[in-house]
């Protein structure tokens, strides 16, 4: 998921649904994570917030939530790819008391007017007490 475009109206609309699929408003769901007000409590919460960051075009959050050992110098977001829906397929650890975790997901998007999906198993670790994205295996 290295490319994404700013397509969602969520950041400007406090009542807009969160792109992560939680059912809650962006302002009370992933918005506080993107603004750095809180940290993700679980690996799945971080995965959801990262998907939302791709959906709203927040490259800064993606970099900040990436482990320093595997983080690229920059991310180029694709303005023609619109991320539309996230499905969590499985989780492995990544809870409140864990230090490692994995989340398998399917991310839906539209590009050039056509639907597509990306399936991936992302790995997460705690670094300095907070969850960060480590790397991924294609699904």
UniProtKB/TrEMBL annotation:
Q: Which domain of life is it from?
A: Bacteria
Q: Which PANTHER family match?
A: ADENYLATE CYCLASE-ASSOCIATED CAP C-TERMINAL DOMAIN-CONTAINING PROTEIN (PTHR33747:SF1), UPF0225 PROTEIN SCO1677 (PTHR33747)
Q: Per its record, how is this protein called by name?
A: UPF0225 protein OG994_09130
Q: Which family does it belong to?
A: Belongs to the UPF0225 family.
**Family annotation (InterPro entries):** NTF2-like_dom_sf (IPR032710), SEC_C_motif (IPR004027), YchJ-like (IPR023006), YchJ-like_M (IPR048469)
One Pfam assignment: YchJ_M-like
Which residue intervals define the domain YchJ-like middle NTF2-like in the entry? Answer: 42-136
């Amino acid at each position: 998921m290295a490319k994404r475009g700013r397509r969602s109206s969520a950041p400007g609309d406090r009542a807009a649904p969160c792109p992560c699929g939680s059912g809650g408003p962006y302002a009370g769901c992933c918005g506080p994570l993107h603004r750095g007000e809180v940290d993700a409590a679980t690996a799945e919460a971080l995965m959801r917030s990262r998907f939302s960051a791709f959906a709203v075009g927040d490259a800064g959050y993606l970099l900040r939530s990436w482990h320093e050992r595997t983080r690229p110098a920059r991310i180029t977001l694709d303005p023609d790819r619109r991320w539309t829906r996230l499905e969590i397929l499985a989780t492995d650890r990544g809870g409140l008391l864990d230090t490692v975790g994995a989340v398998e997901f399917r991310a839906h998007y539209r590009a050039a007017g056509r639907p597509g999906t990306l399936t991936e198993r992302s790995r997460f670790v705690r670094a300095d007490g907070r969850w960060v994205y480590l790397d991924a295996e294609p699904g």
